[in-house]
Amino acid sequence: MKDADRRGSPLEPQEPVRLQKALAEAGLGSRREIEGWIREGRVRVNGALAQLGDRVQPSDRIRVDGQEVRRRAAKRHSVRVLAYHKPEGEVVTRKDPEGRPTIFRRLPGIRDGRWIAVGRLDLNTAGLLLVTNHGELANRLMHPSRAVEREYAVRVRGSVSDQLLAQLVNGVELEDGPARFEEIVPSGGSESHQWFHVLIVEGRNREVRRLWEAVGCTVSRLKRVRYGNVILGARPTPGQWREVVGEELEALMALAELGPPVAARTGLSPGSSDKAPDKVPDKGPRPRGSAKPRAVASPQLAGRGLKPRPSGRR
User: Per residue in 185-196, pLDDT tens?
Assistant: First the structure.
């Protein structure tokens, strides 16, 4: 066999990939976001309007909003992830028709691709928001099948009985199907306002608020304090961000079942923090019996083991 045959003919077509995956790998957005663009008619392939389910090859010409997309799948670019502390009053969108401040005005510039938000936090919810330039990483961290843990600190008005807590971990019916908290840990407060730390693994729209509302409770404050293995900690402060690097980034990539990241050559800037995230003990195996290692828990949940479970719960 000739050497050229061993390497493979350059004329041999590569395996086509789904359009939304190709655009996500080019750093344009998450797969879910790009699927919305396709539905809205914003994407064309070789001049034709794209459809969901289309597959593309490197030779295909793709345009989004009339702009040609430069595909860079052949080269491994640096994976960057920021941990942003979103304050209340900001929206997770690039342009808001109502003129409200967006998180993207606070983020640093980026050379490869653009920043992609990993999920959303609503206007009145504060706390940890991950952003990345890696579309596939964002997609995997958000996808319900991955069951990536999201931990929130929540303040609820009035007294909350043990019966209501048991109901919330056992499951309640929402308009988009049954939902529940994986864990609830009481975290102090007063008779008029009680604090809890809660854990979810789906990340549906306003899921934490809707769960409490389903049992007749009102949420007065809500803050996300952990996403996967990344903990908010004391820094960054509201409106600031820090770069997720080193072992923390490697663990996040492993959680998404992706290979080791290419280290980004970037220094700290005024919006970042050089303080390492708080190190807390691992909490043990995942509650659903998955073979995947459980993400590091925050200090409020680590080692507490407070899981209200009514009798008969499996």
Answer: 999 888 789 999
Q: Residue 262 corresponds to which tokens in the numbers above? A: 């290419």
Spatial separation of the C-alpha atoms in residues 212 and 233, rounded to whole Å? 25
Q: What pTM does this model have?
A: 0.68
Instruction: Provide the pLDDT for residue 207.
Output: 93
What gap in Å lies between CA 149 and CA 302, rounded to an integer? Answer: 13
Q: How far is CA 126 from the centre of its chain?
A: 14
Closest CA to 127 of 183, 82, 88: 88
Amino acid at 174: L
43-57 burial, b at 16+ Cβ within 10 Å, e below that, comes to bbbeeeebeeebebe
Token pair 């999920």: residue: 119
Give catalytic residues, as residue numbers.
122
Q: Where are the beta strands (DSSP E) in the chain?
A: 17-18, 43-45, 48-49, 55-56, 62-64, 67-68, 81-86, 116-117, 126-132, 150-157, 172-174, 177-179, 183-189, 193-200, 219-227, 230-231, 241-243
Helix (H) or strand (E) holding 140: helix 135-142
* Residue 191 pLDDT: 79
Which residue, among 201, 81, 202, 87, has the nearest Cα to 138 in the 3D structure? 81
Place of tokens 């050559």: 265
Q: For residues 177 and 210, give the distance between their C-alpha atoms in angstroms, rounded to a whole number.
A: 12
Pick out the chain residues at pLDDT < 70: 1-14, 71-77, 112, 262-314
Q: How many CB atoms lie within 10 A of CB 32?
A: 14
CA atoms within 13 A on the CB side of 118: 33
Pairing of strands 193-200, 183-189: antiparallel
Distance from C-alpha of 197 to C-alpha of 291, rounded to nearest angstrom: 25
Cβ(100)–Cβ(89) below 8 Å:
yes
Enumerate the β-bridge partners of residue 91.
102
Token code pair at residue 164: 């209501």
